[in-house]
Amino acid sequence: MILAGAHLILPDRILRAGHLRIENGLIAEVSANPITPLPGEEVTALDELYIAPGFIDLHIHGALGRDTMEASSEAFDTICRHHAGGGTTGLCLTTIAAPLDPLLAVIYAARDYRLAPPHGARLLGIHVEGPYFSPDKRGAHLPSMLRDPDPAEWRQLLEHADVITQMTLASELPGALPLIQALTDCEIIASVGHSNAWDDEVAAAFAHGLRHATHTFNCMSSSRRRGPYRAGGVLEFVLSEPEILCEAIADGRHVSPTLLRLLCRAKGIDGAALITDATAGAGLPAESHFMLGEIPCVVRDEVALTEDGTTLAGSTSTMTRCVRNMVDLCGLSLIEAVQMASLNPARALRLDQRKGRIATGMDADLAVLTPDLAVQQTWVAGQPVFSR
């Protein structure tokens, strides 16, 4: 197939009225000039539309009332189909703080689900968020589910390193450092989050391999007094350390435009990855009620809240909304905002030799966008999985 006449968002420029050839699920040719079709080859005109590399969401819990913790192919299908409508071609389904058995059930279900052809965004793996959190920064996670890392437990999780992409934990907890080292050894992203650590405690985790920060600004400590002196927290450490990739929920609610601009100034374009942190409320009408684990939640003011309205319970966003916000609220170029949603997360997952860029030989995971950045089509491995 040839996709003709679209503006191609490349890593260093926008190729106006460019052309793509797709063969066997890969990008076979990128050209500024029309590509002569082979006999029987289909040509699709996409004049005045944009083609971006498909977005990769490292942190997503659910959509349309369905949740990762259901550990079922039906739930996974609903979530992956919904987020394909936001230009997402690959995602990491994310757990909540829970006992070991439900976490393992999600992992087993994901292993089976990945064997089938994708019907929406491709499931890249499981992000284990919790249960090793600080009670002071738990967010919308039940305090009864929080605990310190126990090798007898986490070693059972790490047996599934081929499915787990990331684990979020508080770096200050007793037993956290050996776990971070083990995650690093298994090539699983060790990410600091839901943490009340001091900066020196995060520095110790960094020495053991921590290179990632979960939903930066949300549920993490910041500068405060330590006795008579002022010291940094998680936030200051991750913003100041160039090797740490910082996630950001750019829905315009979790993090204000000022803080998003601060993130861009501190980390540069290479140092941040956009996420939705979407929960089961994504795609539901305002005032819809849903559950996050055992916590009743509601969709309100374009976010998800606990039912009493006091705590954020993830977002209702899509990745294309996050990209648009980085352009509109932070003044980024479209190239820069797209990189934060595609190439940067692909690098974090060590998939950047296959995904995250429009280039010959890369996976044909693509988001077709209107000039105002609405998603018209989404392609995974050269196959359409969403069309508006």
Entry keywords:
single chain; 388 residues; alpha/beta; eight-stranded mixed beta sheet; eight-stranded parallel beta sheet; 10 helices; 24 strands; 24% helix
Helix content: 10-25%
Structural class: alpha/beta
Determine the mean pLDDT.
97
Number of helices: 10
Q: How many DSSP E strands?
A: 24
Quick one: overall form? globular
Low-confidence stretches: none
Quaternary assembly: single chain
- Rg, Å, rounded: 20 Å
The proportion of residues in beta strands is: 25-35%
Biggest sheet descriptor: 8 strands, mixed
Distance between the termini: 20 Å
Structural overview:
Helix 5 crosses helix 6 and helix 8 packs antiparallel against helix 9. The protein is globular, with a radius of gyration of 20 Å. Strands 1, 2, 3, 4, 5, 22, 23 and 24 form an eight-stranded mixed beta sheet that branches. The chain starts with a strand and ends with a strand. It contains ten helices and 24 strands. Helix 7 links the parallel strand 16 and strand 17. The protein is an alpha/beta fold.
Write the layout of secondary structure elements.
Layout: E1 2-9, E2 14-23, E3 26-31, E4 43-45, E5 50-53, E6 55-60, E7 62-63, E8 66-67, H1 73-84, E9 88-94, H2 100-113, E10 122-129, H3 151-158, E11 164-169, H4 176-185, E12 189-192, H5 199-207, E13 212-213, E14 224-226, E15 229-231, H6 234-240, E16 245-249, H7 257-267, E17 272-275, E18 289-292, E19 295-300, E20 303-306, E21 312-315, H8 319-328, H9 334-341, H10 343-348, E22 366-369, E23 375-380, E24 383-387
Parallel strand pairs: 1-4, 1-5, 6-9, 9-10, 10-11, 11-12, 12-13, 13-16, 16-17
Antiparallel strand pairs: 1-2, 2-3, 5-22, 7-8, 14-15, 18-19, 19-20, 20-21, 22-23, 23-24
